[in-house]
Amino acid sequence: MAQECSGAGEALTRVFALLGKRWTGLVLAVLMQGEARFAELRRSIPGISERMLSDRLTELAAAGLLVREVVPGPPLGVNYRLTAAGEALGPALWALGSWAESHLDVLPTDRQNGSEAPASR
């Protein structure tokens, strides 16, 4: 007799509600390399809009994974850096990247709409 499906659990539900959003993992991966200004982040993540980047940075700051620091000018600037909790995600992110290299096909870009589609097997 098969076991009843019990769900993913509260902790995984919370983590994927935050990290499962588009671009969030890439923002974290870029910040794993060190602090960065908004424009540097935008250049490092091709395809992300300013609005989306701003939204993701706000969400990650609210979750306690990064801090936003205003740098006095001129020119006035804002740096973003990971907190200890954000840095603690490093091993999980690198493990996911390693898994993807071994188990996911390369995703070709759909040039018509800029989205990516899974490669056929």
From TrEMBL:
Transcription regulation listed as a keyword: yes
InterPro entries: HTH_HxlR, WH-like_DNA-bd_sf, WH_DNA-bd_sf
Domain of life from the UniProt record: Bacteria
Database matches in PROSITE patterns: HTH_HXLR
Record carries keyword Transcription regulation: yes
Keywords, comma-separated and alphabetical: DNA-binding, Transcription, Transcription regulation
HTH hxlR-type domain ranges (all copies): 5-108
Protein name as catalogued: Winged helix-turn-helix transcriptional regulator
